[in-house]
Amino acid sequence: MKSKRIIPRSFSGILVFLFLIILVFLIIYPLFWIIISSFKDYQGIYQDVWGLPDEWHFENYTRAWDRGISQYFVNSIIVTIVTLVGVVFVASAASFGIVQLRGKLGNIVFLITMGCMLLSPQVCVLPLFMLLRSLGLNDTYFSMIFPYIAFRLPISIMLIRSFFVGISKELEEAAVIDGASLWTIFSRIYVPLSKPIISTVIIMTVYYAWNEFMFATILVDSSALRTIPVGLMVFRDGLMTEWGVVMAGMVISCIPLIVIYLFMSKSFIRGLTAGSVKG
Amino acid sequence: MLTRKRNFGAFLFCVPALLILAVFVYLPLFENIIFSFQSFTLSAKTREFVGLDNYKALFSDPIIMQSLFNNVLYAVISIVMQVGFGLVIAAVLEDVVFRKTESFFRTIFFIPTLLSMTVVCLLFEFVYNPQMGLLNSFLELIGLEEATHIWLGDSSLAMLCVIMVSQWQSYGYITMLFIVAIQKIPSELYEAAIVDGAGKLRRFFSITCPMVRQMFFVTMVTTVVGAFTVFNEPYILTGGGPGTATMVLSLHMYQTGFVKNQMGYASTIAMLIFIITAVLSSIQFFSFGKEREGDR
Which CATH number among 1.20.1270.90, 1.10.3720.10, 3.30.300.180, 1.10.150.910 corresponds to the domain A61-277? Predict the structure, then answer.
């Protein structure tokens, strides 16, 4: 029953296979084209759209880096890391609190958190802009970091809480008898046992913070704070026809996530599909 | 007494999350409701209460109708292309015939999901570019010069072109979700069906479809909510143009607030988005709760 062939034998099988190959082509070719074109100059792209570069302009990459991508890259790294630490810490603490609370209170806290999942960020962006301005945060990294943490908390708490619920109570009870505090139980028992779900949350958060566009473009005034997705737009507008350099910038911006994907594609896919509850 | 003290300790663990959500999610939502009854500019110190005027304006605003139409078009095309077609491709890839190549295909299909929307949009600017764009160049290459267009400048085509960008990006992601769902189906079901002489189509409709209906529902709502909140693609690619051909609700909200400086009315548009998406998400929210209970 098991087929060892790469290409199916039946006629319909071959048709489907060809169709899948076309789909692969539609995805791969534009990406391949961007990479090839990022080594060309303007003339090279304009006159020969399809061909390989006559001359490989590796300097497009150093120019893109020097013309602003380096700054955007650093900003993205700062925003992503702080968001990540915030989400992991706040979400796992809250999940622990929800699991530990006796009586109705735990459910109430959980419902308050989950209620946010009904809300799209688009609905909050205007008041958020005014709020951050009146808090004096509009020209700091926090104008991105706080909204990012806030909108990643509900899904992260949902995932971590459902993992915490499944943790066996025996260790915890033994620790309570030994007089351990809640903090000890949290940091010595719950967190170390939850590495799988925390790594899922890490991947989801990094993916979100690295690529987020709307908040980053609306909530941030200062050009010095732009993250890569917003910076690329400015980059494109500023460079006009230096397409090769723009494309080099695009390639650079994708490298971190592609690298993570290549090295941990299984957990990456698990991370992103666990987020299917809310994209 | 001990429980109360313990409960207080446990509650302290929830405080940071509750504070952040209160300040950065619930407070803005609450403010937005108030703003939607007011009229003010970004720099204004005072805000004028205007009652239901903004809501009346909402119903007589032609751009709202255009935006809603575009959002609905977005939703319909996304459902057919991503959810419908994604399920079919996932089922095909999970077929024994493709056992050797399945992981190759799904790895490739997933790649666009990794790219940021900016990169994808800039990429499609090069695809749609009228002079050197890949699409026109390709059409010329195969001798279809008359089929070339100024894709994003043609008001009858621009919206479809913008929608295709999200299809290209998200399609592999939805397919992956269905693959995960199909892999959870017990293989005995298929084996029994084969013994009973059921063909591939019959197995798809009688086993695969009913078994993944929960995921079908989840992806459906996610896609529709995404279609009603779409912002990045039209903002980057067309800015809503030509004219208002590619205007969508959140872009209209953004331009009303930050470009035309009518923050009150912009908040009213946000309320419209809120009502549509909250209804859709709550359907998903409650169905998901049921699904989890079913799993255990």
Answer: 1.10.3720.10
